[in-house]
Structure formats: C-alpha cells, structure tokens
Amino acid sequence: MKQRLGILLSGRGSNFEAIAGNALSGKLDCEIGFVFSNRASAPGLARARELGFPCGTLESKGMDRDNYDRRVVDLLREHAVDFVCLAGYMRLLSGHFVHQFRNRILNIHPSLLPAFPGLDAQYQAWTHGVKIAGCTVHFVDEDLDSGPILMQAAVPVLDEDTPEALSARILVEEHRIYSEAIAWVLTGNYRIEGRRVVKT
Ligand code: GRF
Description:
The protein is an alpha/beta fold. It is built from six helices and nine strands.
C-alpha cells in the first residue's frame, strides 16, 4: 500500500501544488491522504478541493495550542497519514503533535538554515547582504525551523535583486527539493545521527 502524506498549509499553497503534481504523475510514490489548513480561506485549500483531495480546516480562535493540535492529530490519524508535510503552515506545533509524528514531520523553509529562521526569511537574507541564499527541507522538532536537515539548495543573490525577485528564485528550488526530500524519506533509506540525516 502506498504511504500517505498529510499536507498542512496556511496560504498560497504552491509547495503543496508541486508535491501534489508529483504525486498525481507518479513521480512521487505516495498518496495525498489529507490536506489541512488553519485558515478556511487559504487559496491552497481551495486548490486542494478542486483537485479532489480530502480536505479539512479548523478555526483556532479560543482554543489553546495543545487542544488545537490534538484535534489536528486526530484528523491526520483518521486519514491514516504516515508523513506530515508542512507547506507554509504558519503555526508552531505543540510537543504532543511532534511526539505523535516524531521524525515524520517535514518542513520547507526559504533560507539556508540555521541562518534566518522565522518569518520573512528571504527578506532577512536580502537585507543582511548575503551573496548566497536558498532553502532547506528539515524534520520538525519542538523548536522553530529547527530539526535535522534533509536537503538544501542554494541560489545566488544578485546585486539587482529585490526581495521579491530573490523569493521567486528560491521558490523554484523549494518546489524541486521538497519533493526530492519526500521521495528520499519515503524510501526509508536514511538514518538520523544527532542532527545529521545520512543515506543508508
Ligand atoms: C514558502 O516560501 C515556504 O518555504 C515557507 O512558506 C512559503 C509557503 O509558500 N515555509 P506556498 O504557500 O507553498 O506557496
């Protein structure tokens, strides 16, 4: 049986679309079992509905993080999700969530971690004046944009770049390496040694 991905998103959903395209074309040997958003109006969620994937959303107002995440974990379990992919999901996960899917949650971040964690990473890189920027796919732990690194891709920062131009260049690489990292994880041919993820 194919392994099942749960995708969590809060906005545009371009990373979700890239993964979905690869799953639908068979490039990725998995099924998208569930797409969830904390924002009912997320364009990515609308797209997931159009594509016919099982979808869910849950309003977070008035609910503490722990209770909210317990409900999300229940939904992921109901949909028999094996791996969780955060794709622009703008919430920190609770310890309970991370524990339930230990080393089975992936995230994509638009910087070469550990540089520039947090919001507006591309803008942070651009204002800092770095000459090389990029993106990182990593396992998720309890901390922000932390966790063992699976894959990274670098892009140059050009003198004439705006933050938008740089973000667009990074996004192309995000769409490529997120699926590559998922494909690797699906094979199970890796070992986590401390912070290092190595091929087996
Ligand atoms: C991406 O830049 C991703 O790296 C970051 O949030 C953004 C989401 O974009 N975590 P999209 O919703 O996948 O288009």
